Amino acid sequence: MTVVTMFDLNKSGQAQSSTSDQRDIVKALIPFDVRFERWEASVVLPAGAGQDAVLQAYARDVDRLKKLGGYQSVDVVRMHPEHPDRDAMRQKFLSEHTHDDDEVRFFVEGAGAFYLRNKEQVLQVVCEAGDLLSVPAHTRHWFDMGPKPYFAAIRLFTTPEGWVAKFTGDKIADAIPKFAA
Predict the structure, then answer these.
(1) From CA 140, how far away is CA 176, in angstroms rounded?
(2) What's the angle, vertex CA 24, arms to CA 106 and CA 60, rounded to 5?
(3) pLDDT tens profile 148-165
(4) Could you give all domains of the chain from N- to C-terminal order, each with its CATH number?
(5) What would the pLDDT profile of 21-48 be if each residue is shown by its tens digit?
(6) Distance CA 40, CA 53 (A)
(7) What is the pTM of this model?
């Protein structure tokens, strides 16, 4: 289930509220200018489906977003609990950073948590299969795939160079609870 938890930075980063209602999720994301959508595949995909099958199953929505956002490349990334680089990959994006490009992810399988920050709050958005989240360029955020990561996600890019993380140096991510799934 998709869940958004709000942490108030004026109250020591304590969780203030949580919601799984899609309308409330969209409303909570408005101050961050983040797009949230739910997609359905055009065919039933088997677990572990390959990149070509995944992209074909979601071609209509991927093509719509490519036109809307000017995205030039698309791929599918997978992570599983036995992946030999899972710990290093998790650590790579656990610190607050920005990108020069939008960070667009659609979860085909599994789950992961995006953390979005503004001056007053941090939102933890736990995305699951069927969720699209598009984080605008230059938005302060981080991503946690959890200690036993399991997900497959479609990624859309304008340019590969724009996706390079620019770390802020702020330790805010250390003060907010990690994704435990």
Answers:
(1) 14
(2) 30
(3) 999 999 999 998 777 789
(4) 3-165 (2.60.120.10)
(5) 999 999 999 999 999 999 999 999 998 9
(6) 14
(7) 0.94
